[in-house]
Structures are given as structure tokens and as C-alpha cells.
Amino acid sequence: MLINRPPDIPTSEITEESLYTTRREFLLAAGFGAAAVGGLLPFSRTALPWGRGPDDDKLTPFEDIAGYNNFYEFGTGKDDPARNAGTLRTRPWKVEIAGEVATPAAYDLDDLLRGLTPEEHVYRHRCVEAWSMVVPWLGIPLGRLIDRLEPTSRAKYVEFTTLFDPAQMPGQQRGILDWPYVEALRMDEARHPLTLLVTGLYGKPLPNQNGAPLRLVVPWKYGFKGGKSIVRIRLLERQPATTWNIAAPDEYGFYANVNPEVDHPRWSQARERRIGEFFKRKTLPFNGYAPQVASLYAGLDLRKNF
Ligand code: MTE
């Protein structure tokens, strides 16, 4: 099921013109993904006519996206991950598929994703710490992988687990969090077309500090839902425990939907500082994605289910 190989597209056949359209969310065409996942890039970043984000947001420069990170496995300072994540070996990379699926097994990442073409999606990215960015992610809508895994009728949640290897991830030698880092989504959130399994940004393979080789991005949720360097995807009947919810249940809920009306107990969530900007801007409900996702939570009290 997972190892059907599509015909490979030689990089020589991928032209710059074929990669771009002017559409706002999707800029990439078929073929580029396989090259990016394998680290073979048919062009340089600077040559690219990058689009802008939702509502014409200006893209955050690559240097900021890859230089200002949260990845506690490599330290708690914002510049620690860029400095320290060079110890992470991202190939070969195995991903265990477990739980309520037709064929639980460990797959080589390249086999798991083969034939699923990454697309570019420019998303707002907002951290619970009230900073934000606009990022041209390169990723595969998670729903496409879930379809491929053939979930059983009992699969109601999807859990994502980060690598646990204190030798490669020195931050794990300290008990800052309950390692390994775990995040999870409800099945309808996981299948939503905005939810991405990300393999790159700005048309390059994902830098280690951003969660190489595979991380989750859910643009209407606080950034902490985006688990990095994923080694296990588990489909479950019951809602699993997640790292930040275990660490501080009063501060970090399971849903973690961006909500300017529900403050973090220690600071406001009403405004945010876009990296590179001086004045703070208003935070939007669901990070600006309410038209696409608010219906997922109809009838749910978002103050209780924060
Ligand atoms: N994933 C792991 N494994 N470890 C982490 O510390 N931090 C989270 C999330 N994913 C984190 C993680 C938080 S708090 C945020 S805001 C985002 O990653 C940051 O993603 P970025 O560094 O690519 O901006």
C-alpha cells in the first residue's frame, strides 16, 4: 500500500516556470516535492518569485524562520536550535505507523511519502508566546497520508511523537519536558486540508531546527501543536496525553486554537508581535483561519476547551 512507486520525475524536467502559479496558497506543481524531500533542489532560493501570505501578509525572511525557534530538544533559547541542531541525523529516517490502521509498520520516510507531492502553503505561524511569522511551508496535506494508511473505524485521534535520542538531542538530557515530545489532533482536524506534514520551507528541505525531516503544521493553532522531527504517527480511539498539556494543564489545552479572547494565565493572547515588525498587531480568532475551520468547533465552549 505504501510502497507503490510513481514514475520518478527527473529534476532536469522541472523548470522554474512549471513550479509557480500566482495562486495564493498553492504555488508548487508536481515533481518538486520528491526532489525537495531527497535534498535535490532544481533551483536556488534567491531566484524564486515568492508569493505573499494570506491577506497579503509579507513573508518572514528565511533567516528569521530558521534562526528564531522553539525546539527544546536543542535548548530553550531562541537561537539554541539553530546553533545546536546540527547533531540531528535526518537520513535514514524511520517513521512508525501504529494503532488503528490497516498495516502498522515502520517505514522509511522516503517510502512513506513516495508519490505524495509536497505543495507550498504560505501560512501564518503564531506561537503561544505571542510572536508570529508568515512561512512558506512545503508540505503534504496530512489527510492524504491518513487515507493511504487506511484507518479503522475506531481511529478518532492522531498522535505525533518526536525522536527520543539524548545523544543527538542534548536538551533531552535535562528533564525540562516529559520526553519524547508528543502532540495530537482530533481526526477531523488532522484531515482538514490546511493541516500539513511539512518537509521543507522556502523551497528547501526543512532546516533541522525547524523540525527536519518531518513536522506537523496546523496554522489555526498555537505553534506548540506542531511537533517536530516525527518518528511515530499513531491513530487512536481515545484522546492521548500531549506534552505541554502534561507539563502545565492550566496553561496549555489539548485544542490550543489561537483565540484572542482566551488569555494564557500569565499573559494576554489579544495581540502578537510579528517578527521583524515594531508595533504589535491584533491576533485574529483561529489565527485568521476562522472561515475555514470554525465549523469544526461548533457547539464547543472554547473557553473550557482552550
Ligand atoms: N516540537 C518539538 N519536538 N519540540 C519543541 O520544543 N516546540 C513547539 C513546536 N514544536 C517544539 C516542537 C513550539 S512551542 C513552537 S512555537 C513551534 O514548534 C516552533 O516552530 P518553529 O521553530 O519552526 O517556528
Provide a quick synopsis of the model:
The protein is an alpha+beta fold and 306 residues long.
N to C succession of SSEs: HHHHEEHEEHEEHEEEEHEEH
Low-pLDDT segments, ≥5 res: 1-48
Biggest sheet overview: 7 strands, mixed
Q: Which distinct ligands sit in these coordinates?
A: ligand MTE
Distance between the termini: 37 Å
Helical proportion? 10-25%
Outline type: globular
CATH fold field value: Sulfite Oxidase, Chain A, domain 2
| Count of spatially separate domains | 1
The proportion of residues in beta strands is 15-25%
CATH superfamily label: Oxidoreductase, molybdopterin-binding domain
Number of helices: 9
Q: How would you state the average pLDDT, rounded?
A: 87
Structural class: alpha+beta
Named at the architecture level, the CATH assignment is Alpha-Beta Complex
Number of strands: 12
Quickly name the level 1 CATH class: Alpha Beta
Radius of gyration: 18 Å
